[in-house]
Amino acid sequence: MIRFYFHPTPNPAKVALFFEEARLPNEVIPVDTSKGEQHLPAFRAINPNGKVPAIVDTEGPGGKETRVFDSTAILLYLAGKTGQFLGAPEDRPELLSWLLFLASGLGPFSGQAVHFQFAAPEGLDYAVNRYRREAERHYQVLDEHLEGRTYIVGNTYTIADMSAWGWLDRASRVRKGAEDALGPYPNLKRLFETVDARPAAARARDVGKDHPFKKTNDEESRRALFPSNYPPAA
Q: Which segments show compositional bias classed as Basic and acidic residues (predicted)?
């Protein structure tokens, strides 16, 4: 069995989508990041970085219990374990390139764009502009790559498309105030809609809905989500 440490945010959503696509049995373990549960010692033993998602495979390589953290690492691990959604062998270098583009570029810049537009104090116009424009630049790079293509890599649906879906689902927050957030990027919009129309995507959206995750944005939440903004306790 695989234990899946989850919170309903973009990076865990990618992994939820893989589990649903592969019909891979897993046990969802909620981690309420607004309550600071990601900082508890038991979870830090699984992911020292204190972030979700993370998994523990009780039947890992050699029958050994195996932890994996970071959404891209998890997607690669699960794809390798199941032999699914890796595309053709000859496309593997391209797959790795786009996965890391998403992991180091589109995802983080999207996250920071959302942070500075919704969570940061007012008056940080440079940061708002910097992160939003860089997120949009990554959108443009991927949109141009997708011209004439159905999927990001090769001719089949892969973990790269799953990875993109997780953050593209939040485009309306990344491009705050835009009437049609993906409208200027028609190829990217088509990719998102293609993935989002899959039955597994609807099932992935339901993961964790039976758990009462905290939704109040109060001081406890801010300290839990952005601990580096606060001095350490004496």
A: 203-223
